Amino acid sequence: MNFVFLILFSLFFLYLSWKKPIVALAFIVAFLPSYLIRFKIGFLPMTLLELMILILFVIWLIKKKEKWNLSHFKYPIIFWLVAATIAVFVSPDWWPALGIWKAYFIEPILFFIVFINVVKTTGSFAGAQDDIGLNLIFRALGFSALYISLFAIWQKITGQGILSLQSWQGEKILRATSIFEYPNAVGLFLAPLILIFIGQKKQKIFYWLVAFLSLMAIIFAQS
Asked: Which candidate, 26, 49, 46, 193, places its Cα nearest to that of 114?
């Protein structure tokens, strides 16, 4: 990755996290596929998604004046973290295991801690449909599904872009991949979101449209 871009983006996200943590949170959600953008900081492998999560957590931690609010998630988080850490030490190949520990456990936990604190202070956490913070998160999810779906549909219609060319019983089949590296990732990302979108009570037209486009993308990806 271009070093200048990385510095400029980090400064931008630092500013966003400091001024508007809920917007920074939504930005991460909107660009969850940024884990595909990989680079190294020294010897440490990193993705753009991980960088955003770490920046947001550090800024939130610096500005946090009250005690962390983990609600009833405290002990499940501790248990989850202890189990993951033990798994690293018993792994025969500890370096890849450490990478999984960082990306699949530590950073999601950090994101979750910021999420339940920032969103809860933005509005009524219990009333999801009336909460400004959660509505912003849902719209960010809708935005991510929208550009992923549209790109997959464009790939299938035009035959351009990154497509997976596989042979099934001797027949070559073009499967849309959208921005991902393989077609099944389209379904893995979009399918759970469809259920969230059709359950929204506000902005139904937008969410149902995104749900429909997501379904089309999954069909075109055959995932």
From this structure: 26
CA distance 83 to 86: 5
Tokens for 130, please give them: 């009336």
| Tokens describing residue 46 | 């990193």
Q: What is the per-residue burial (b if ≥16 Cβ within 10 Å, else e) of 137-150?
A: bbbbbbbbbbebbe
pLDDT in tens, 157-194: 988 887 776 655 556 678 889 999 889 999 999 999 99
The tens digit of pLDDT for each residue in 126-155 reads 444 446 788 899 999 999 999 999 999 999
CA distance linking residue 208 with residue 203, whole number of Å: 9
CA 82 to chain centroid:
24
Chain centroid to CA 165: 27
Among the listed residues 206, 207, 187, 188, the one whose alpha carbon sits nearest the alpha carbon of residue 196: 207
Tokens of 25: 């949170």
Q: Are 213 and 150 in contact (CB under 8 A)?
A: yes
In the structure encoding, which two tokens stand for residue 124, read together? 């009524």
Give the type of residue at 91.
S
On whether the CB atoms of residues 131 and 119 are closer than 8 A, the answer is: yes
Q: Measured in Å, how far apart are the chain's first and last C-alpha atoms?
A: 30
Residues 6 or more apart whose Cβ sits within 8 Å of residue 15: none
Rounded to 10°, the helix 204-221/132-158 angle is 40
Beta pairing, strands 171-176 & 163-168: antiparallel
What's the whole-model pTM score? 0.86
